[in-house]
Design goal:
Elements: E1 5-10, E2 14-21, E3 24-32, H1 39-53, E4 60-65, H2 76-90, E5 96-99, E6 105-107, H3 116-119, H4 123-132, E7 137-143, E8 148-154, E9 157-159, H5 165-170, E10 174-175, E11 190-193, E12 196-199, H6 208-214, H7 235-245, H8 255-281, E13 292-295, H9 299-308, E14 313-315, H10 335-347
Parallel strand pairs: 1-4, 4-5, 7-13, 13-14
Antiparallel strand pairs: 1-2, 2-3, 5-6, 7-8, 8-9, 8-10, 11-12
Helix pairs in contact: 1-2, 4-10, 6-7, 6-8, 8-9
Length: 348
């Protein structure tokens, strides 16, 4: 059977795709796409991914996005329009649908200006609607490379208070922290280092990828962007970048001190996610044994959040059957792309 439907999630830093053969997941793919550098980055990513997937001639493509927010565009509507125009250059528009939130899927040729706000950054809602069709109750937390989405599901309905990024930031349903790209200087003004509080330099010297490389939790295939200094992505490189944040060179402290600093930053991020999860749970809308579902490259943190709030943990990978292959992307890494593919399969 040939690939006849591809779900796409176009972010600001990556493009993700999930290819289906009938109702079976055949391929999960992610490519770096620093969209802020220009639409040529998206052109290249789409071209390479379509060539690698090799879909049938009249394959259907379904798109969701969050990349419209990058500072390449003066506003979000312009971003959505520009992304869809680029999509149309690579996929036959007659076989393209766009996820428009609660409106469902719109054929690309009929998308109007009034539709653009509900298309913008709706990828979280695709994941939420897909999960709500499969589980009756859960708190789903998707920790990606850059940001994290949280939403409650109860009685197979979504119990969310926000829709736009602004609204969701207010309600801790969108937390701008991830496990690859987030700048460590955003975590705290000061950190504990070698028994003292030390102020952190407000420079993009290091990112969360450096932290999780040192803790051994980062799957290297998920780290597709350059390091903060464009240097090597090794333990030694990560230590060097962490040292700069506290005004040090690597040789000035023992390796154990740098590892302790990494775990301190880890704790800062984990507490931020735990606070957001507890805010959702404090609404009193769910049972005490409701599971927490983890998705995204940082779902290893979600598992620990579940332990802290004493809830059972379930991996997003368990929702859909797929042969697991070590060292390759799993469906949980690309949840919105998987979601639009399966949601579209129900309506196509």
């Amino acid at each position: 059977m040939s690939i006849d439907l591809i779900g796409w999630d176009i972010g600001g830093a990556h493009v993700k795709a999930v290819a289906l053969q009938g109702d079976r997941v055949h391929e999960v793919m992610q490519r770096a796409c620093p969209l802020w550098q220009g639409l040529g980055q998206l052109d290249q990513a789409l071209e390479e991914m379509i060539q690698a997937i090799k879909p049938v001639k009249h394959c259907r493509h379904v798109f969701t996005m969050s990349g419209e927010m990058v500072d390449l565009f003066p506003d979000r509507n312009t971003g959505v329009t520009s992304i869809l125009r680029t999509v149309a250059a690579h996929c036959d528009p007659d076989y393209v649908c766009v996820f428009a939130g609660m409106q469902g899927f719109l054929p690309l040729p009929v998308v109007q200006t009034a539709d653009l706000p509900v298309i913008a950054s709706a990828n979280w809602l695709a994941t939420a609607r897909f999960a709500a069709a499969l589980v009756s109750e859960a708190l789903l937390i998707d920790v990606g490379s850059t940001s994290s989405d949280l939403f409650l599901i109860g009685n197979r309905q979504l119990w969310v208070r926000g829709y736009t990024d602004h609204e969701r930031l207010r309600y801790d349903e969108l937390v701008y922290t991830g496990v690859v790209r987030t700048s460590l200087m955003s975590f705290a003004r000061r950190v504990i280092f070698e028994g003292e509080w030390v102020n952190v330099m407000a420079e993009h010297f290091a990112s969360t990828a450096d932290v999780y490389r040192l803790t051994g939790e980062l799957q290297e295939y998920t780290d597709q962007v350059p390091a903060a200094d464009a240097g090597e992505k090794t333990r030694e490189g990560s230590i060097r970048r962490l040292a700069r944040l506290v005004g040090q060179d690597v040789a000035m402290s023992d390796p154990s001190s740098w590892e302790s600093l990494a775990y301190h930053f880890r704790e800062k991020q984990l507490q931020r996610l735990t606070d957001a999860a507890m805010r959702q749970l404090s609404r009193g809308l769910t049972d005490a044994d409701m599971p927490i579902i983890g998705a995204g490259a940082g779902r290893f943190l979600v598992k620990e959040v579940a332990e802290r709030v004493r809830r059972p943990y379930k991996d997003f990978d368990e929702l859909v059957a797929m042969d697991r292959r070590d060292g390759e992307f799993q469906i949980a890494d690309c949840a919105p792309a998987l979601a639009v593919a399966f949601l579209a399969r129900q309506v196509v």
